[in-house]
Amino acid sequence: MDFDLSDDQRQIKDSVDRMLAAAYADLKTKAAAQKEPAGFSVGNWKQFADLGLLGIPFAEDHGGLGAGPVETMLVMDAIGRNAAIEPYLSTVVLGGGLLRHAGTAAQKAALIPGVIEGTHRLALAHQERQSRFDLADVSATARSDGAGGYILNGEKLVVLGGDSADTLIVVARIDGQRRDRAGIGLFLVGGTAAGVTRKGYATQDGGRAADITFANVKIGAEDVIAGKGSDGLASLEHVIDEAIAALAAEAIGAMAALHDLTVDYLKTRKQFGVAIGSFQVLQHKSVDMFTALEQARSMGYYATMMAAEPNAAERRRAMAAVKVQIGKSAKFVGETAIQLHGGIGMTMEYKAGHYFKRLTMIEMAFGNTEHFLRALAHAGGLIPAAA
Amino acid sequence: MDLRFTPEENAFRAEVRTFMTTEVPLHVRKKTEVGEGLSKADLVASHKALAKKGWAAPHWPKAYGGTGWTPIQHHIFTEELQANSVPQPLPFNVSMCGPVIIAFGTEEQKKRYLPKMYNLDEWWCQGFSEPGAGSDLAGLKTTAVKNDGQYVINGQKTWTTLAQHADWCFVLARTDMEAKKQLGISFILVDMKSPGITVRPIQTIDGGHEVNEVFFDDVKVPLENLVGQENRGWDCAKFLLGNERVGIARIGLSKQRIGRIKQLAAKVMSGDKSLMADERFAEKVAAVEVELKALEMTQLRVLAEDAKRKSNMPNPASSILKIKGSEIQQATTELLLEVAGPLSVPYLPDEADFGDGDHWAAPAAPQYFNFRKVSIYGGSNEIQRNIIAKAVLGF
Ligand SMILES: Cc1cc2nc3c(=O)[nH]c(=O)nc-3n(C[C@H](O)[C@H](O)[C@H](O)COP(=O)(O)OP(=O)(O)OC[C@H]3O[C@@H](n4cnc5c(N)ncnc54)[C@H](O)[C@@H]3O)c2cc1C
């Protein structure tokens, strides 16, 4: 067991830390970036590409680094630390992940180089109005056109990065009932293809998303990732598990930064003639934050370790546990940080609120703490009963 | 001891409910119910409906427009107001500045200010907190210097709620620079149209514009705008902050929100059943309901005891109401956020649909963010615990 980073990993960490710390030094720059047409700084995105960060998980054949969950963790940690809003999760982790796991050689060759260069962005359209956290709850339909292609109909809600993505990866039902595990397909759809209507909006945490409807959208055979007879859901679940590991790292980065910010504030903010950090009740609260952060950090390592686990049931169980710890810690650290800051924590002009809002959304993403607690209990927990 | 409501009290409740549901503009109640932001016009309309009925400031003495109700009637009134999603009459007018003027002001001041305050013909804001003076309010630095028969005010206030709507501000300022802390402070009424006042908006984490910074640059105020004695403004402030704590439990509001949580959770599917049919979720809601019932009984006890108290300083047990009340309010916003789930992600401040349409979930996250404030303002929950430790437990 080795928790140390290799030289290559250290280099990735240093470069992404430096780049994002500079880009997000001032909240005004962030506010300006949110007003750009894409909803984030395209200049920053170019820097991600220039540093090779967009190629991390992809094969070297396509121009990627061929790296794994540890490298992704380093990038996501930096994103979390800076409350950054670039669509790394949607393009590289989610969209890129599905291409890696399930895409055909031709699809990979066509799309991955553009992703790595930063000229092509992806988004995963899976969430529906009724589906909540159930990945198998899919009512959008893909009807076979008899020539290897499909006709897509339905509606997807809150597609992260979906308002400006060049290509959408759409989850749709080929056959079966609404919540059946079988019969789920995955399709590539151009963001501006005929029959696609997107309604974009800002998200609570400063990112972008879209509600998207598909009306008789034609999908050629070459754009089918998982068609009839293939297990689209398994690929989707695999990629969501990787996304949970990535989100864990982002949450840890955000919590660490927020905890630092809070401790600094307690040491400098004076009331009643003394630093408020001299009040023991506040010291203890910040110690509890620290404990929550470190427990989360440990689960983040576990997530990185299990993200590549080939046994899907084991991996799912592990990620449920990860998400429970991350969610609990994120909520506690976020809420406590705001409380300990007093009024200043309530404003958008100060960074604490940005972390808090992002952490709140991470707790919710792909299933909240309650959802995964239930899932873990149903799966028998982590430790088997004694014989 | 008989803890049931009397037939007269039940009849009173029915009367209040009928009024709330028929006379207060429906769109204001609808917005409040689902957690959409209220405009100035909304708040004025609802306040004026109450004022017309003579219920804008029930707890004021009868001579100034109060009702002379029993403590239980006050409780019933507040509960029905909140349960029917009627916004509180503007607290800066009726719960804060009004009672101070009634208790400490001159006859002229009462005549000049109270009627317009009551009817919300003039909107008031609270200029207490400063960048360096929050929990330690007495550390405030804004000064009011007597010069040429008037006060000249310089300094900065912050977190001033809805100052952008305000006609007047009640300000705590230092009038004796030599005196220690609490001793040299005065309570002064300032016309917001005075030259030298600048209001700068602060965006809060829910995305709204609820608070402001207010700058005073050589603002001239007539001496007669002093309330109470010069350098004794702290007495007014303490009195006011004590009143603020009583209203802050917001039991009716939490009840209303739990009702809404149950309504929505019965519709939202979680797997193959509704979220409300999910035992874990239902148990969490029930646990908050138990806490809320206990708090409601605590509130009634405090009210009954207050009626017998001689001093006009509030009961220290009212700190419990603030701590528990705020914790429960926050718990309800957390449950609502859980109901909204992934649909709470969109930030759609401009797409009001009264929570009936596609965006029913949109106010959940902003409300959760916004309600972090209730354990911070009006004396943070840490400060409330300090008060209880000292005043009740004798530490
Ligand atoms: C939304 C909102 C609206 C507001 N509206 C108004 C308004 O209209 N008018 C107005 O005058 N003010 C208003 N306030 C200000 C509010 O009353 C202050 O925020 C509050 O008094 C806390 O002060 P502070 O923000 O400076 O925090 P600080 O006093 O700096 O507190 C920071 C942290 O330290 C803790 N702390 C401080 N002292 C102690 C202690 N002795 N022991 C233990 N812990 C301690 C606090 O509990 C808090 O957790 C508003 C605030 C908010 C958030």
From the structure above, extract its key features.
heterodimer, A: about 375 residues, alpha+beta, Butyryl-Coa Dehydrogenase, subunit A, domain 1, Butyryl-CoA Dehydrogenase, subunit A, domain 2, B: about 400 residues, Butyryl-CoA Dehydrogenase, subunit A, domain 3, about 15% strand, binds flavin-adenine dinucleotide
Distance between the termini of chain B: 33 Å
Shape of chain A: globular
How many structurally independent domains of chain B?
3
What is the CATH class designation of the largest domain in chain B?
Answer: Mainly Alpha
Described by the principal axes of the CA atoms, the overall outline of chain B is globular
Structural class of chain A: alpha+beta
Query: Which residue ranges of chain A are poorly predicted, with pLDDT under 50 across at least 5 consecutive positions?
Result: none
Assign the CATH architecture of the largest domain in chain A. Answer: Up-down Bundle
CATH architecture of the largest domain in chain B: Up-down Bundle
Helix and strand string of chain A, N-terminal first?
HHHHHHEEEEEEEEHEEHHHH
Description:
The complex is a heterodimer of chains A (387) and B (395). Chain A is an alpha+beta fold and 387 residues long. Chain A folds into three domains: 7-120, Butyryl-Coa Dehydrogenase, subunit A, domain 1 (Orthogonal Bundle), CATH 1.10.540.10; 123-229, Beta Barrel (Butyryl-CoA Dehydrogenase, subunit A, domain 2), CATH 2.40.110; 233-379, Butyryl-CoA Dehydrogenase, subunit A, domain 3. Chain A is built from eleven helices and ten strands. Chain A has helices at residues 7-23, 27-34, 42-50, 69-81, 88-102, 105-117, 232-268, 280-306, 312-341, 351-364, 369-378, and strands spanning 122-125, 141-144, 150-160, 167-173, 184-190, 196-202, 208-219, 224-226, 270-271, 274-275. A four-stranded mixed β-sheet of chain A has the order 1-4-5-8, covered by helices on one side. Chain B is an alpha+beta fold. Chain B has three domains: 7-89, Orthogonal Bundle (Butyryl-Coa Dehydrogenase, subunit A, domain 1); 124-233, Butyryl-CoA Dehydrogenase, subunit A, domain 2 (Beta Barrel), CATH 2.40.110; 249-392, Up-down Bundle (Butyryl-CoA Dehydrogenase, subunit A, domain 3). Helix content of chain B is 46%, strand content 14%. Chain B has a four-stranded mixed β-sheet. In chain B, helix 5 packs antiparallel against helix 6. The longest helix of chain B has 30 residues, at 279-308. Chain B is globular, with a radius of gyration of 22 Å. Chain B starts with 6 loop residues before the first helix and ends with a helix. Chain A binds chain B through residues 127, 129-130, 132-134, 157-158, 179, 201-204, 209, 211, 270-273, 276, 279, 281-282, 335, 338-339, 342-343, 345-349, 353, 356-357, 360-361, 364-365, 368, 370-371, 373-374, and chain B through 129, 132-136, 139, 158-159, 202-205, 207, 211, 268-272, 280-281, 337-338, 341-348, 365-366, 368-369, 372-373, 375-377, 380-382, 385. The structure holds flavin-adenine dinucleotide. Flavin-adenine dinucleotide sits between chains B (126, 128-129, 134-135, 159-161, 210-211, 373, 376-377, 380, 382-383, 386) and A (269, 271-272, 276, 279, 281-282, 339-340, 342-343, 346).
